[in-house]
Amino acid sequence: MDPGSYKDRFRYRFDNFFAKGGWAIFQTLISLYIASLILMGGLRILVHFWVTGTFVGSLDQLWAVWLQIMDIGGMENDSQSPLYHKAIGIATSILGLMLISTMLAFVTSVFKEKLEDLRKGKSKVLETNHTVILGFGIRALEIIRELVEANDSEPDSAVVVLSETDKEVMDDFFNDLLTERGSTRVITRSGSVTSPYFLRRNGVSHCKSVLLLNPAVSTASPEEKNQADYWALKSIMAIFAAIGEDTKNFPPVVAQLHYRRHRELAQAIAPDSIFVLDEETILSKILVQTSRSHGLSLVYSNLVGFVGNEVYFSDPPPSLLGTSFGDLAHHFIQSVPLGISDRKGKITINPPMNRPLQEGDELIILAEDDSTIKYYPEPPVTPVRRTVSNLKASAREERFLLFGWSHKSSNLIKEYAGYLSPGSVIDVRVKRVSDSVKKAFEAVQRRFPDIRMSLEAVNTSALQFPATLKPETYDNVIILAGNGDTVDRIDAETIGALLKFRHYIRKLEERWGKPVPTKLISEVMDSENLEIIQQTGVKDFLISNQFISKIMAQISEEPRVKGVYEELFRAEGSEIYLKPVELYLEEIEGQSIPFADLVLAAQTRGETCFGVSLHREESDPETAGVYIIPRKDHHFQLEPGDRLIVLAKDDF
């Protein structure tokens, strides 16, 4: 192989040396300064010796040269010197000026390069006990909003967002939409979330928790979802590689994966540390529950997340061991026990009222804040056992209209069919009946022959829409967020359909002279569109992105909360219902009833009451008539139409 000429080899080594970066350039500049001092100083000393024949004053000559190299003003020292010193001084100053200019350019370029690196978000994160979010987008924004609220009582907290998105884009996004941050610092970094190197640089090994955002939205194609799940699995493995095999130090990792097989794979990596959510199933269950119980969406909004009331795990004092679960509720003035976590970690929501509190049990308590949880050795309010009603809610046929079709429509219909009585109706109306939609619908239809189902296409642009659907003949009209390229486009179509339905209902109410009992329920993707939805008069809505984001944020702070939600959404478990107060008490009108008495009345039916919904206050913009965990000594003037908010096995 030809090694090249001497000139080529020199240039090759020269290029390699300067390719090392700023330190190599700095070394070169220092070397040039020293060489200039030696060259010009030696020249001045030699000339001085040639003229005077002595080396006396050589150090003074070197000092003069050094001053002229460092500062052109140093030439003033040669104002009385011989001409030859002045000539050498001029040459030295020009050389020094060139070196100083080069040094300034070097320093400027180093600072510029450093600022560019900072803008790119490549610097190392030196935080501990922080939250790491892997991914970027609306869901990251919603999660950070919840974490800001959760960290409100902390003097200092940090959230690190790692994404392949440019740092400047992320910073601009959060600066525009996240104006209230409290004591929480939001740190953005650009890099690969599947790289152990970048994960280590962002402190994943000593963070409090990790939230892994799936890059594929729920409306994406199956291929995109599949690829996104693989990406998420790779990210989990990268976290494992970054931390090492010591699973004891593995932080809680909260992730959302689309497919069950992928969720099982993720869970198997570190069963005690990885918490995977099934977004489709959760939203389907919530949408069904909220649509069948007017006002339930407000209750869930209060419970899910850190704004409002929260679920806490609390160790009861030893003095309460042996106390039945029913009696425990009366040892709090405001907080309400919802369930028990036994010594093995098994969670039971709304256990039997006679179930005694045992050693190693933790209470699952609904409270405004952990600081408000206070146990009383004796009940602060003694409940009065009032005359209990013998009424039971009777099963009836229900009629539901589902407008639109999305990836979770099949699950949604299955959930409805599991609740409804035989003979109930589920009508699905879509813009176009594709082969895939028809196939999925018929599969569900065959599975539930006792429920009358139909699928038809409708022209939403027709002047008669939605009058031709006769929405007033249904108990509930559910407007689903469909499929689309972006969240904004999906919500725009949802809001457009919602406006048409609402306009038709209002015109009908004007003609009838009385309210139409049909309830409109809408699914929204982006919480930024909440105000628009509220302007339509719809009180029951589900903000999909925000709801899942709140759950993810809660689990990142307290992983055991996931078990509580699993119990609430389990078909065989207790769920949240809003039931008429007439089912609990025979006499309600004209009486002032303390909340402690209502809790006791619900316990006679094996239910846990934790709130009240007052019909006459539904239009109140602040409370909407919903009171969650009021004080036990708070008195209510109840009337027909008011409801208790309870945990129960069924809605009868």
Automatic annotation (TrEMBL):
Protein name according to UniProt: CASTOR/POLLUX/SYM8 ion channel conserved domain-containing protein
GO cellular component, one term: endomembrane system
Origin: domain of life: Bacteria
Keyword Transferase: no
One BP annotation, GO: monoatomic ion transport
Compartment(s) of residence: Endomembrane system
Keyword annotations: Ion transport, Membrane, Transmembrane, Transmembrane helix, Transport
Domain CASTOR/POLLUX/SYM8 ion channel conserved: 281-375
Entry's transmembrane regions: 21-39, 45-66, 87-111
Lineage start: Bacteria, Pseudomonadati, Pseudomonadota, Candidatus Lambdaproteobacteria
Annotated membrane topology: Multi-pass membrane protein
Keyword Transport among record annotations: yes
